[in-house]
Amino acid sequence: MSKVLKGIRVLDFGRYIAGPFCGALLADLGADVIRIDRVGGSEDRFVMPVTPDGDGALFLQVNRNKRSITLDIDSSEGKDIVRRLVLTADVVIANMPAQTLAKLGLDYDSLRELKADIVLVAPSAFGGSDAMNKRLGFDGIGQAMSGGVHISGVSGHPMKAMVPVVDFATALSCALGVLAALYERKSSGLGQKVDASLLQTALNFSSGLLIEEALLGLDRQATGNRSPIAGPSDIFRVADGWIIVQVIGTAMFKRWARLIEAPDLIDDPRLGTDQSRGEHGELLSARMARWCEGRSQQQALSALECAKIPAGPVHSPQQVLEDKEINDSGAFAWMSYPGLTTPAPIVRAPMNLSRTPLEVALRAPTIGEHTDQILSEVGYSIDEVERLRELSII
């Protein structure tokens, strides 16, 4: 089957999520993605360990469809191997500080001297400004600095998302940037650098809030799970769990009021617009909470669906894995991995293509699983590979 990125080679020096997940998406599209691991395994491999050898849950997710070579990239021999690999590559992914990139010869100026049409993807925490480019950061710091954490949680207790939404979204942006750069390369014959930052991603998430604050100065505060701009929009307890309900727009609000047998709310002058309903969200959430009392999750969701009101269950991770509709949608590729007694549910990419579909075909690689194969492809003999292994270069 034809693949969008068939024939494209990617060298993935990325760590944690923003770099590696970009590489995974490119691999899903058919690129040959080579992960460059430290000898003995890179630190991000062992986060949230799930295998007897300590391989991590996130590693299995963001490194599917890749091959792995172990390499001491600080050594002179390692740098020689990197140069040979770059000559065969189309894309380099390296989410490292700018100084580290330069030290390793992975900065864009060094790479394009080797290969003029190379594309460098270099996501960072804060971008390239002189004031911030030396600072380190992770997903949560981007969330916190964007203003989003300030309006999450409850008053006096800011709360970030516990899943790395900024990391994953930055990786998606990087993958889009790579596709754009490869498309442009067809006409110019030249590569370029793709920049992205966790902070800029997080600022995009908060953009509506920031524009509103700049223009109106509302100084919004945290309202828990309740939306400040529409209502009722909140998380509610039912007899056997929790559900989320999001009512937006006057037509939907009227349907909701009729559903809970509260027609008086339709003509209430305080509730004429989404904005005013958000301002009186406590009142609306209280009415909805009373309606939810005594109803099971299924009863409540069925009634809301019949009324064409968006709602859904609040799942635990185990409930997600057991949800028949989610499983039937093809959300997971269940993959075996050395040391695991059961397959791991690798989550498929959030987009797909009808004629050239994305595919999760290979599990994440073990440490250096393809080192010999990859070195052979760039001209190293069996004896040279063995010497490099004896010197702990690979």
Descriptive overview:
By secondary structure, this protein is an alpha/beta fold. The chain is 40% helix and 13% strand. The protein contains 17 helices and 11 strands. Helix 1 crosses helix 7, helix 6 packs across helix 8 and helix 7 crosses helix 8. The chain is elongated. The mean pLDDT is 96.
Quick synopsis:
The protein is α/β, with parallel strands linked by helices and 394 residues long.
Percent in helix: 25-40%
Give the SSE string: EHEHEHEHHEHHEHHEEHHHHEHHEEHH
Number of discrete helical segments: 17
The largest beta-sheet arranges its strands as 3-2-1-4-5-6
Overall mean confidence score, pLDDT: 96
What is the straight-line distance between the termini? 34 Å
**Class derived from helix and strand content:** alpha/beta
Shape: elongated
Q: In angstroms, what is the radius of gyration?
A: 25 Å
Number of strands: 11
Sheet with most strands: 6 strands, parallel
Quote the beta fraction: 5-15%
Poorly predicted ranges: none
List keywords for this structure.
three-stranded antiparallel sheet, 17 helices, single chain, six-stranded parallel sheet, 394 residues
Summarize the SSE layout with pairings:
Elements: E1 9-12, H1 18-28, E2 32-37, H2 57-62, E3 66-70, H3 76-87, E4 91-93, H4 98-104, H5 108-114, E5 119-124, H6 139-145, H7 165-188, E6 193-197, H8 198-205, H9 207-216, E7 233-238, E8 241-246, H10 250-259, H11 274-279, H12 281-292, H13 297-306, E9 311-313, H14 317-322, H15 324-328, E10 332-335, E11 344-347, H16 371-377, H17 382-390
Parallel strand pairs: 1-2, 1-4, 2-3, 4-5, 5-6
Antiparallel strand pairs: 7-8, 8-9, 10-11
